[in-house]
Design brief:
84 residues; stress response; Heat shock factor-binding protein 1; HS1-bd; mainly alpha; 1 helix
Length: 84
C-alpha cells in the first residue's frame, strides 16, 4: 500500500462527507418549507373557523335566538360504566 492509496481514501471520505452534509441540508430546507406551509394552512383554517363562528352568531342574532346556548359538541361517545 503506497501513499497514493491513502490520499485517494482521504479524498473519497471527504467527498462522501460533503455529499452527506449537502443532502442533510437539502432535507432540512425541504422540511422547513413543508413545516412553514403547514403552519400557514393551520393559521388560515383558524381564521376561517373564526369567520364561520361569527357568521353563525350573526345568524342566530338575526333569528332572535341569541339567548339560547349553542348546541353541545360531542367529543367521544360515552361508554356506560360496567358494574362489578
Amino acid at each position: 500500500m503506497d501513499g497514493h492509496d491513502s490520499e485517494d481514501s482521504k479524498q473519497s471520505t471527504a467527498d462522501m462527507t460533503a455529499f452527506v452534509q449537502n443532502l442533510l441540508h437539502q432535507m432540512q430546507t425541504r422540511f422547513q418549507t413543508m413545516s412553514d406551509s403547514i403552519i400557514t394552512k393551520i393559521d388560515d383554517m383558524g381564521g376561517r373557523i373564526n369567520e364561520l363562528e361569527q357568521s353563525i352568531n350573526d345568524l342566530r342574532a338575526e333569528m332572535g335566538v341569541e339567548g339560547t346556548p349553542p348546541p353541545a359538541v360531542k367529543d367521544e361517545p360515552k361508554t356506560p360504566a360496567s358494574s362489578s
